[in-house]
Amino acid sequence: MSAVTRPGLLQMVTSNILTLIVNPIIILLNFFQMNPQHTIPVIVDNGFVLSESRAILGYLAEKYAKDSTYYPSDPMARGVVNQRLMFDIGTLYQRLLETYMVR
Ligand SMILES: N[C@@H](CCC(=O)N[C@@H](CS)C(=O)NCC(=O)O)C(=O)O
Predict the structure, then answer these.
(1) Which residues line ligand 1 (CB under 6 A)?
(2) For 4-30, how does the pLDDT look when each residue is reduced to its tens digit (9 = 90+)?
């Protein structure tokens, strides 16, 4: 009896293939439900779901590195960090679009 016709092998292979197809679909559906924007990164922190990289960075720093120099509490120092965080999305991408994409 060949390996392919051995009883149980076909079911095992079929089951594994189905798992390989179905599991990613379930993961994807859960992800879409969790993050309606369908973008990465996304974090789940004790059930709290947050997308948008800059929001995630601010949240993580506020929650887990309160007095860190990465995200200082001093308003002027934090202002500079926020300016750097938002420069690309606020200015750089817009200029790139204007220069190279929009005609
Ligand atoms: N502004 C978002 C942008 C996120 C974003 O566009 N991520 C890309 C991958 S780097 C993505 O998920 N693209 C899929 C899509 O836009 O559907 C952030 O900073 O998190």
Answers:
(1) 38-41, 52-53
(2) 566 688 888 888 999 999 999 999 999
